[in-house]
What we know:
By secondary structure, the protein is an alpha+beta fold. It has one helix at residues 12-26; strands at 28-38, 41-52. The mean pLDDT is 80. InterPro entries: Gas-vesicle_GvpA-like. GO terms for molecular function: structural molecule activity.
Amino acid sequence: xxxxxxxxxxxxxxxxxxxxxxxxxxxxxxxxxxxxxxxxxxxxxxxxxxxxxxxxxxxx
Length: 60
């Protein structure tokens, strides 16, 4: 897939930018749960979902 620091003449910033470009082009979904509890009782629960997509502008 993608390797950071492979002798292609780029630096780490370019590698991260290239990786983000690939992720946005293909799309990604990130999910997670955060639960805050006290003494075994759940006080706050957050269900997180992030959809990352690239949107192209109008042609021309």
